[in-house]
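For the sake of transparency, this paper describes our internal protein records without simplification. The tokens are whole numbers drawn from a learned vocabulary of local backbone shapes. One such record is reproduced below, unchanged from the form in which we store it.

. . .
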Amino acid sequence: MNSTHSPSPDEAVAATRKWLERAVIGLNLCPFAKAVHVRKQVRYVLSEAGDSDTLLADLERELHYLAAVSPDETDTTLLIHPYVLGAFDDFTDFLDLVDVVVRTQGLAGTLQVAHFHPDYCFSDTEPGDLGNYTNRSPYPTLHLIREASLDRAVAAFPEAATIYERNIETLEGMGLAGWRALDVDAPGKD
């Protein structure tokens, strides 16, 4: 992460909310996000973890919370962790542990975790490719998702398989200047 700014918890949550509203919902990168946002069913959790073990404990706690709470109250959780895993390689290495935690907690098939990072880069792309911006958030973020909710959303959106391609077209059409105009990167991000 190319940021020299260490955000306060409130700044990190506010930046993530702005990213969700302007990029994810505003550009319709995820057609399922608007409904849960409007119904205030998105839980924003700031992890103050400074190491991966503490972040794993925070993840485990949030997975159990989401599995136990009514979807009408909280349908999805964004676990924002701006103080750890700022290097994208460290973040991707950590994702193997995320999968292990979901399985060992008996939550595979119930919950899944998507991931976003300020320097996100898909394995078959170059860092500057605009398609990478579909998964770029202001701070490293784990998105905890109920599989039942995802299944319902996909069933209601028959072209779900085309979302990724449409998102790339959207980002390429707006260009880097258009993305920057959204003002959704972390403060101090190059």
